[in-house]
Specification:
Butyryl-CoA Dehydrogenase, subunit A, domain 3; Butyryl-Coa Dehydrogenase, subunit A, domain 1; alpha+beta; 11 helices; 10 strands; Butyryl-CoA Dehydrogenase, subunit A, domain 2; 4-stranded mixed beta sheet; 3 domains; 4-stranded antiparallel beta sheet
Amino acid sequence: MDFELSEDQKMIKEAAREFASEKLAPRAQEFDEKEEIPKELYKELADLGYMGMLMPEEYGGSGLDFISYILVMEEFSKTCAALEISLSVHNSLISDAIFKYGTEVQKKKYLPKLTRGEFIGAYSLTEPEAGTDAGSLKTTAILKSDHYIINGTKTFVTNGGIADLFMLFTLTKPEAKSKGISCLLVEKGLKGFNIGAKEKKMGIRGSDTRELSFEDCQVPKENILGEENKGFNIALSLLDSGRIGVGAQSVGIAQSALDESLKYSKERVQFGQPICNFQAIQFKLANMATQIEAARLLVYRAAWLRQNNVRCTKEASMAKLFASEIANFVVNEAVQIHGGYGYMKEYAVERYFRDARVTEIYEGTSEAQRIVISRNLLK
């Protein structure tokens, strides 16, 4: 059993840490307050290979292994979780799905644009009445001649306002319900495709989240990804990667909250001494550090299984469940250690507290993860 990262993985982790420290940390609060990340930053990320991390070089990608990708996601989350989730959707959901399920024509058409940052990807599954119950979609795509005619509404779409390419899950055989779902690649700007106003969120505010609506929107038949009526299988197959990514995000947020708490506890003086001298604070820090390390190991194990093509649905759900709940525990303790200052926007732990909350919700709620885990235990 080897817990050591390879030399390449260490270099990739360090490079990501340097980029996050130099380019993201100084502006993370600005992104949060303005509720946007400048699109030019994505071009800079593309130039460094971060927009095509999992893609092979033939499509302009960096060809990273999955563990290296997760290391990058963790480092970026330490400073700007909003950017991390945008990159996670773009890399592990959109690009990876096209690479796995797309035709060669689709791969050549879209993957180079995605890896170069010319296109940003968005994943669109959730609807106003279909969240955890993703099989209850109502958006339809009816084939007419050589086009699908799409009607319906999608919600909570990450990258919705900045994306150029949308992976849309829709009913092509409504009477079959989940067995009649297909996946379509939809480009921005089509007639009948409308992008709603930006959602006002508690945290991860720099990430652009929108509602999408379709009214007789025509999408070419050749834009179907994979087989018709097999889209639900595609959606399920992508969940493991997405959940491991949220696990890494959770670990990154929690680690920064701990780092800030350690720093503050050494500087804050009460009763004539730094508060880190008090056992109450020491025990909080010890519990935070231990829980983070446990979460990190679960995430890395799930990433290793995914990298080695071992089915890891249970492990991905365990990693996501534990890491997200621990992140919320840690940021709560971080605010408590900071006292009144932790409630002020001047201190980063206030943003970490808000950012961490959604990790227990998106990519499947904590309740949904427990369903997945228990089903795998009982089958």
